[in-house]
Amino acid sequence: MKPFVIHRRSISQSTNLDAMELAEQGADSGTVIVADEQSSGVGRRGRQWYSPKGNLYFSIVLKEHLHVPTLSFACALSVGISLEQIFSQHIENSKIPTLKYKWPNDVFVDNKKISGVLLQSKVQGHSIPWIVCGVGVNILHHPEYATSISSYIPDLKLTNIELLDVVLENLAKLLDIYSASGFAPLRSLWLKKAHALNSHVCITTSDGITHEGTFTDIGLDGSIVLKSGEDTLKLDYGSML
């Protein structure tokens, strides 16, 4: 993985929009936009992303490993591994919270969302010249339904840039693994901490249809595998309810 080139902004409408603009202008793979706050942060399916100052919001331009579904796992894992490192350094082992990955690309701690990932790409003919991976992590603040690092380590002095450095270090390692060995090793890491694995789940796809079944696996293409009676269903995209 090439060294990251980081552009810092005090406020951005959306770091993904900024990164996509740079990608269109020919920015190199590994270009990062990080903002102290976002005025119009966006999550998956156009949902507003809570973006006050004090949390981490960044987007990275990637021009390798251009498969959106599996790349989202690398981004989520980079956050999850970073959070586990921070928790293990500051919390007694018996009190470390439970971290899980919720398909397709959320990170949960004690069943509450602490981080989300949004991937956006450009399709040019039959190819994808770039992907922008946007990441938000709650450090100090969170909406009522979510959680943050400060909920578990109230006295921790952790800036968004300090957390960014840790996440990017882990992301670089994961992308190197991806480059050398494909998605399988990342899939194994993700499945070890998969939210609702072997449980009954509901997945709503972009066409508004809700599919139900037992979540049994993740395919090598990043799809979720559901078992319902004798039937097996693979879904490439959707939201787990």
Report on this model:
By secondary structure, the protein is α+β, with helices and mostly antiparallel strands. The chain has 2 domains: about 5-190, 2-Layer Sandwich (BirA Bifunctional Protein, domain 2); about 195-240. The chain has 4 helices and 12 strands. It has helices at about 15-25, 70-90, 160-180, 185-190, and strands at about 5-10, 30-40, 55-60, 100, 105-110, 110-125, 125-135, 200-205, 210-220, 225-230, 230-235, 240. The strands form 2 sheets. A 7-stranded mixed β-sheet has the order 1-2-3-7-6-5-4, sandwiched between helices. Strand 9 and strand 10 form a beta hairpin. Helix 2 (about 70-90) crosses helix 3 (about 160-180) and helix 2 (about 70-90) crosses helix 4. The radius of gyration is 17 Å and the shape is globular. Pfam families: BPL_LplA_LipB. Keywords: Ligase. One of its GO terms (molecular function) is biotin--[biotin carboxyl-carrier protein] ligase activity. It comes from Anaplasma phagocytophilum str. ApWI1. This is Biotin--[acetyl-CoA-carboxylase] ligase.
